[in-house]
Amino acid sequence: xxxxxxxxxxxxxxxxxxxxxxxxxxxxxxxxxxxxxxxxxxxxxxxxxxxxxxxxxxxxxxxxxxxxxxxxxxxxxxxxxxxxxxxxxxxxxxxxxxxxxxxxxxxxxxxxxxxxxxxxxxxxxxxxxxxxxxxxxxxxxxxxxxxxxxxxxxxxxxxxxxxxxxxxxxxxxxxxxxxxxxxxxxxxxxxxxxxxxxxxxxxxxxxxxxxxxxxxxxxxxxxxxxxxxxxxxxxxxxxxxxxxxxxxxxxxxxxxxxxxxxxxxxxxxxxxxxxxxxxxxxxxxxxxxxxxxxxxxxxxxxxxxxxxxxxxxxxxxxxxxxxxxxxxxxxxxxxxxxxxxxxxxxxxxxxxxxxxxxxxxxxx
Length: 364
Description:
Blueprint: E1 6-11, H1 14-29, E2 33-38, H2 49-54, E3 62-63, H3 71-89, E4 93-97, H4 101-112, E5 117-120, H5 132-143, E6 146-149, H6 152-160, E7 167-169, H7 173-183, H8 187-193, E8 202-205, H9 209-212, H10 215-230, E9 235-238, H11 241-249, E10 261-264, H12 269-278, E11 281-284, H13 287-295, E12 300-302, H14 310-314, E13 318-320, H15 325-337, H16 353-363
Parallel strand pairs: 1-2, 1-4, 2-3, 4-5, 5-6, 6-7, 8-9, 8-11, 9-10, 11-12, 12-13
Helix pairs in contact: 1-7, 1-16, 3-4, 4-5, 8-12, 10-15
């Protein structure tokens, strides 16, 4: 048996910071020494440092400041940086979250140095290898030693790929944190700040490369949002910097934007929880946001052809539309005026995922 005294955790993107905030708390309570490495994959303050402040996440001991680059260049810089940290810190284990380039870089660095690897949110599959995230998930799961799966479907995906050892069904850490944050949240104050009314707006986030890097896709989604707003429905769009740049690059901002379509800066995590829970509908290509919407019984339209959270589509709460202007507009107007009435059940555990992860890691 290995007594885990030191764990190096690699993070670099908004969803990872959110998940790490909860798990780090339980690692500390279990007397485990966690060393946080921030790759700098999301370097904008509102997408990074703000989460350390709002979620009381321990400050990173190592910042790689990699920033934006092509997939190959970004991953290579992270791999070299994480390897250097692992060699200097000599941890008993390494931990990664989700499916970003930071995840893959941390996983490869640990595997090549023969440091046992923990993957939180293991087993997710969209079954589309054209997505960079799918490649990151697959490779990380196949070199991991402890795989923490959020749902039975994720466990089944791992088993079908021959991965059985080290797999644990623990639930979803984002569910734990969302419930915790919502408990102490003044949602009315958030709505007042945004000049919104409860259940009288659509919340939108778009950031995935398949949409922001392809003019045809982004133009169709943007046009659908303008159509919806022009019909009299309020649409709030906290825009990722990448999305703003793409809208300008593809010359989509020159059109007259309806007053009901409000493009705003990214919001804090607590504010996002309030906006998700009080929205009538969410339109998003984010895996985390579509899942958080389900936590609060808010239906989602997903302008993608597939999703890693297949159980939400099967449950009827989330609907895949693709990047189709007509489909997004039609389904959004339908759901806004005739909300979903589907059975709801907790698909993501009992709100104890962080505690379970810390216990299993300590006993490994």
